[in-house]
Amino acid sequence: MCYSEDIRRKISSSTECSLVSAPHVEDFQIDALISDIRPRSYYAYRLSELKRDMVVLVNYNIGNPLALGNWYDFIIEEVSRTANIRGTVLLGGDRKPIAGCYVRIEHGIMRIEKTVKLRERSTENITHLPSRFIFTQTEKYLRE
After folding, report:
1. Own/partner long-range contacts of 97-104 (Cβ < 8 Å, ≥24 apart)
2. 30 touches 37 (CB < 8 A)
3. What's the rounded Cα separation, in Å, for the pair 58 and 108?
């Protein structure tokens, strides 16, 4: 899956996909399906809200799990009270599973938002408010 703010997916004619980061490039053209672009996540889960078998959005670095990385789908297997959760990271469009990964709650555990068509959006059905928690925590780790 792609995330509308950070990553754009360029889909080639073959089965391979390449990720292209282009946050502020003018005249940047991409070929992507609307269904592959996710809405922005606003809701940051608290540790007490996390349950086994939930699918959430986490920040994970494959090369260095203690550092900040990219955003992936994550299936929770175990929630510890020490601000770590264990589970399976789902990589890429084919959702390749990587089991036994530990994620720190300080790096952000976000809700995967449902896609709502633009013409169906209204201010009455907003279920979230932007969370400052995730941005505060991310800035803290970037300074270290």
Report:
1. 98/62, 101/60, 101/65, 101/74, 102/65, 103/58, 103/59, 103/60, 103/65, 103/74, 104/66
2. no
3. 6
CA 119, 123, 127, 132 dihedral sign is: positive
> Domains in the chain and their CATH numbers?
2-38 (no CATH), 47-114+135-143 (2.30.30.30)
Copy the structure tokens of residue 94.
């084919």
Name the nearest CA neighbour of 84 among 61, 105, 108: 105
Contact between residue 92 and residue 17 where contact means Cβ atoms under 8 Å apart? yes
Distance CA 144, CA 141 (A): 5
Which tokens belong to 88? 């399976």
pTM above 0.90, yes or no: no
Q: Tens digits of per-residue pLDDT, 35-90?
A: 677 777 878 888 889 999 999 999 999 899 888 888 999 999 999 888 789 999 99
Q: Which element (helix H / strand E) includes 142?
A: helix 132-143
